[in-house]
Fold each of these.
Amino acid sequence: MIACRIRFFPLALAILLLASCAHNGTPEVQNATQEVWDFELTGDTRGNCKMLLARTKVQNDLFRIAGSFSGMTYDYVGGPGELDCKFNGKLKNRNLDCEFTGWGDMEEVVFLNGRFTGTLNDEEGSGEWQVTHTRGSSAGTWKMKRRSL
């Protein structure tokens, strides 16, 4: 009987600890403003993507941003295919700096690791991007336009 209780106690403790941690979401995500953008890529990879962006104010003119973008593209090495990426970064005084990771499903499926930088206001933005993947690297420019509600 005591051996059964000793075996049961760690399991019960683990379940209680998991349940107590499950409700602790990040407050930044809960307070973030969700935005929908058209994200156009030009350069070594060309295409139009839909971007979901969450902007969280940290202090005056400084925002933490995170989100995802996906869409059909054409890469000079990989050919036509679909991108699916997640990003995070910051927006300070309209200067954008983000890192992203994801997948490109083109001639072959490749893991993507990149960065985009530039300027962004409430309605539009533009800048440069770079990405590395198993077939090499790509670079180019981007433009964003916020979708109206």
Amino acid sequence: MLNCKLVYAGGDFSFVTPTSSNHKGALKIAKDHMIEEFVLNAKLLINGKEHYAINHEFKNNETKATGILEDCISLTVKLDENFFASG
């Protein structure tokens, strides 16, 4: 179970993931909320720590997340069906 908060201009969205969920589960909930609320840019905090910067482009209908890793290296992934389907 992860305590999450999606923070963006004009508001925020707090949620708790299911017990068996991992970061992918949190990213899926965040992505769905951003699309539903027309949010373009947000930061995802997990258990009080910033883990991802998320960007949604409505023009291309693409959502990308950049992970903020411990050693200051970032990794950007496209949050599409392939990402969520992979183990």
Amino acid sequence: MLHELKRKAMQNPEDPEARYALAEALFGEKQFEAAVKQLEKLIELFPDHPGARLLLARAYQREGRLTLAERTLEQLVQRSPNSADARDELAEILASGGRIDDAIVHLEEAVRVDPENLSRRLLVADLALRRHLFARARGHLEQAARLAPGDPTLAARLEAVLLELGVTAARPSPLDRGPEFLLGRARAALETEPLRRALADGALKQAASLLRKSDIAGAKRALVTASQAEQETAAYSFLRGEIFLIAGDRGRAEQAFKRAAEINQNKNDENGDIKMGSAISASLNKNITANTNTNTKNRILAAFGRLGEISSAAGCHKDAAHWFNAWLQFAPKDPDALEGLGDALVALSRPNEALTYYEDALKIRPEAALADKITALRTNKNRNNNTSGAEQNNKNLARIGALGWNATGGVVSLVEAAAVPGKGELIFTGNVGPTGQDAAKVAFSCLKARAESLGITEFLARADLHLHFVDTELAKDGPSAGLALALAGLSALSGKKIRQNLAATGEITLQGAVRPVGGLHEKLSAAYLAGITAVILPRKNLFDARRLPAEVVSRVEVFYVDSLTEAVAIAIE
């Protein structure tokens, strides 16, 4: 076969598919050098061939020529940015070379193209954890949990990340307690109103009877025989949802419960029920009040709860809050709905609102688990109040990200600056080496030399400037933080705010000039992954900026400056 492919390629040298077929065969026979020659010639003749560059990169890898493989894959993703396979292989090479941030960037682009790939989600989460990017890891683990519901190992990993982030009030999903629990809960739901009344006749009665006997298959068959009128009821859709949930099919269960919820929302019968379409879309910031005209006897409220659970388990906490809030519109004193909404709000970083719902639930259903959640939130609240109180006492506290880099990649170090009572001296802390200490002194002298034009003369006469790197666990050194230190110091001394989510890098001189720095690629990738939305760079690094990853530059606003004056105009609000 190989001989025949060679013959075809020689007879048809301008036929790209003949040459590609030969290269594939050579690759399969582990004749990588020969495959490389064919593919290089193919790309020379047909640079847009869809598969040649990916196969060439793989051949380079097999030969141990990783630099060429990386370059080939970079060219491929530039030409085909939606090639998830190319980004996967490029990320593998980058990660193996210690360039974790770049690997994460490319894998997240692949996730954007193919969000349902579980193994890729887990890989991104692993790499994010290696870089202590816990919030990023959380997002991918939550989506992985949606793709692999009920996976205990995945649930444990997500719980560990939540604890790292201080989300101490999260609870295990009821959906992860197994089919026996879900079946028992479904049987209990059948005995509640209005389900019992809605299941009194016909195919729905038969399906409910079989479900009570744990005959899931029989219940499904009974539902197939339901009349058109029965299929248009909330009870029918709810039963389908419960059966799908027990079987582990959360996707179809969600669709069935949504249908039940839709029927619930649109019910407007003679007993005075109201439509809830507008109420459900109301802001969660508003207090939920019971409508005295609402009659819940014909509504299957558990459908809202099931949807809230499914959304929470999938990491879609905003949707979960939506559904638990919808439940509370009809049953404002239901403890399960109150607790569920509290859990969703905790996950959405709204602990103060969550605390209110937990406390209301505890009044109705006193139990240790709820009390523990309340205690955890109050403890965190007191800790945060102490911190924010200290900051409130010092109105001139400023923050900015200082971009650095080391052997493991880029770093975003948070710089805090505060004007404290004193005589115009500098205090500098945060595990910084001698060159970094010099950078702070230069930045401070630069500010003092321009005190009048910057409007800080009065402050310098009665205040010291304290500059502090928050990440004291990380040793740092070098002059490139000078610009960030100067901007933070100016903000603290003038009382003017720094633009949010801003970082900077650049060596500052006594004359206020901004000198070029190294590690720009690593710094920008780290800034993007840390959630920075704007960075200030030395204009003399413009040449280096041409090689910055497009995936990063398209999402981070980049400003180039030659002087402190230019930087101040961008950074200080």
